[in-house]
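Researcher: Next sequence.
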Amino acid sequence: MIRSLRSAMFVLACSVSAAASAQSAAVRQIDIPAGDLVTALDTLARQSGAQFIYQADQLRGLRTSGVHGTLSADAALGQLLAGSGFTVHRDDSGAVVIVKGAGQPARSPAPPAAPASSRSAAAADPQEATRLDEIQVTGSRIPRAQVEGPAPVTVITASDIKASGFASVPDVMRAITQNSGETQSQQSSSGADFSPGAEEVDLRGLGPNHTLVLVNGRRIADFPLPFKGRSNFTDISNIPIGMIERIEVLTGSASAVYGSDAISGVVNFILKQQADGTTIDVRYGDTTRGGGASTKLNFSTGFSRGDFNLVFGAELLAQQPLWAYQRKIQDSTADAPTARSQVPRRTFLNGDWYDDYIDPGQATCDALAYLNGGTTVYANRPRYGNFCGSAESIGYGTILSQRRGINTYTSANLKISDTLSWFGDMQLGYSKVKLFRDVEQWNYQAPDGNEDGYFYNAHSGGIENWYRQFTPEEMGGLGRGMIENTQRTFSLTTGFKGTLGERWDYEASLSHSQYKALISWPQTVASKANDLYLGPQLGIDADSGLPIFDADPARLYTPLTRAEYDSITARTNYHPESRSDTLAFTLTNTELFSLPAGPAGFAGVVEVGNQAYDLNPDPLATQYYYYSWKDSDGHGSRNRWAAAGELRLPLLDTLNLSLASRYDQYRFSGHTTGKLTYSTGLEWRPLDSLLLRGSYGTAFRAPDLHYVYAGIGNDETSGNDYYRCRTEEPDVDITDCDYSGEGLIRTRQGNRDLDSETSTSWTTGFVWSPTPNLDLSVDYFNIRMQNQVQDLSTDRILQLEANCRIGVDINGNPVDANSPSCVDAVARVNRNSGTGRLYGIFVNPINVANERTSGIDASAHYKLETAIGTFRFSGNHTWTRNHLFQQYPGDATLDELAVNSGFDIPREKTSASVSWERKAWSATLFGTRLGRLPNSWSYDQVVDTSAGDPAWVHATYRYNATLQYKFSDHAQLSLAVDNLFDKMPPRDPTYTSYPYYDISWFDAAGRSYYLQFTYKFGGSAL
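Model: Next structure:
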């Protein structure tokens, strides 16, 4: 990592003159030994809480006699600078700027350009003000005095978060333009089944498992259940937004610095390390359409006693659920875009061998009308028949989860001697998340897990298939059907840091992080429900081979009592946990050797670690015990070690070269995988106001633990039977085909023979600061991945199976049935031997041939001083040039941004803000633009553009607004309004699946508002 000036500029931008004055005047115990002046200034900043701005190149090599005693920061600073030839200047904002005294020539006069993401708030001349405290910044480990490096880093400060109206960490991540991947929302059925309550970040759309998430520069334990039942990932929903000092985002391969996982980039959440005084922050939020109210309390404090310093913070959250029935856009099947999809849900259903419905009669449904809140009716599905169902029962799910929790953070350090200090950071979190996916369901499931549902009914003398959705009245209320996730997180880092000799700094640390959960899903017990509805099996029908039952249909249409419902349902409880341990030793030297333009910097690190996970599922869940739920087990661990080194070489006054190399080795299950990765970067400043930069890096990623260790298991999904639709109903649109949306049993197992993924990444661009108040940056990125690991796509297998069986694809192009892809696809699909009906599919993780993406990131910031206040403008834009994917070597390369790609990612994302400050008032308008997305037909790969079919959902815009007022230096009130114009998800007439819009990118929460009051006892100004 680097200790960069970039963070200094951001902290400065958020400072006010009152804060600077208060810190400078405060009297504290100061104890700084004689030595390097830059180190002494950093120590004074930590001990006093004051902020100093200077150009480190000018101070390099200067010494100070130190300072000791109880005195103000101003007095201590004066003693440190005595005899150095430098003096203190206060600019108009009150910032403390260290400048050359009169008649003193400046050393290293070439200034760095202003940071691309800074607000340009420092009033000091950029040649004089480039550095505050030495702060570790994502991108390198070498301390250096540069506000920008060879690779672009986006920094979001706590004040940015508050001004933009973000309510949670996932909200912040969704607004980042580089975060372009399709992710799970809180109403995702996949998320509810596999990782309830968790949310993730997906830089460059390469999958959340390829983004490395750090907290204070340290790895944290993965969410203990896999993303979509497949890969490991980091849950960002539990990171307390109120304790964040800043977020740093580095995109592109960073394995040479951080090791495995950093293929698409690194997100580093820096929590608050200093607290002067005690701050209490209370926030209440609600939605203008109702539902989803929340309350949040943040508390932070700290103290210093001699050589001991401690910071403590806590965040408490109470979030109420938002139910789908509270939003008109998705409270009924009547909201669906087509007549067929508007048919009510089938609460009670009896079908025959041909899937025609056996008519229950008007009177039968009328007797059930009180169920589902009085919405159960006698309904008809064209071409199938009549049944008893409800259009409103579709709205029982949650859009926003219920969440209650507390997160705490403690940071402490103790100076043992002038060359040795101890530090420790600890995070503790507890939260309980509740969400509702759907009501429990049942149809006949055979002891071997077959869910076809057909049986021979001796009572009627025919083959039947019974199906039930249980109602809230039978359940005893929707609250009894919620999925519950009780999460406990714990992270501890402790160690020692100090100096060896005059120029070597070291840090030895031990980090431990764990994530434990108790996750409970409501389930129907298959055998008990079979017995209740069908009675004992009487044998096997000789003609059909189906089981025989003597089942009176009156039983199907009789609502369950609460006792009956309880007798056939249960909760399956999992106790998953994950862990990550790292022992690390870092050695740095900012003056390893001299070059004509200055000293070379060096950093080296050695790490030893262990990572483990265990799903700890309910043993019954790994059998055919619960209806439509046969899960896999998974547990395993791996050891790793790594050694890395970095060099930063100032070749010329205007030219810097960065080099890094790292070797990582992983050992698991008798396998050893390792790789040497490297990176290089170049910075050239032909003008004081212009930085030209470029970087190149290689990366690798060892296979996810769950990709390797997942046991065999099933889950329920659905898929389009493209083969039968194309052969039996060739003129019918896929969404109206009788064989679309077929129930499907997906079987999955891990793969212990997976290879490591590899990648290369390069960037090139510039940062231009023509004036102190304006900066622009443009960077081109290019990432290429090889041997990427991911599960095979169910939809893609079914499409390929159809192409291979028919011999041509949907566009009439010939397909070789004997190609490796065809042989593999056909073998993975399981059909009923008698009817040819689609039944099951087998998937597993494989090493995909390659995936690559490229594009441009651009940003701009401008500050304008006027008579009515200070205005700041900022904008960020990401344009993806291409995103290509190839499943097997020799297969066609798919363009993920094209029509009928089967992918759901935008080409463009944009964010912009304008803020205003005047005396006690400040306001910000923040907006985002999400570029056009494929519509449902394009995602299903059935669009016929030659026939004029629509393929896209138009670009969408969302705005947040905030208004803040300071009653005093220690009291502030703010109002934030998210989704200012109350925009609902865009209508997609092709999206016939509930909730009839793309939940990966949108939700129906609508306008939300948050009222927040902050008060600080003691210390500097807010």
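Model: Residues 794-806 form the longest helix (13 residues). The CA atoms of residues 14 and 510 lie 33 Å apart.
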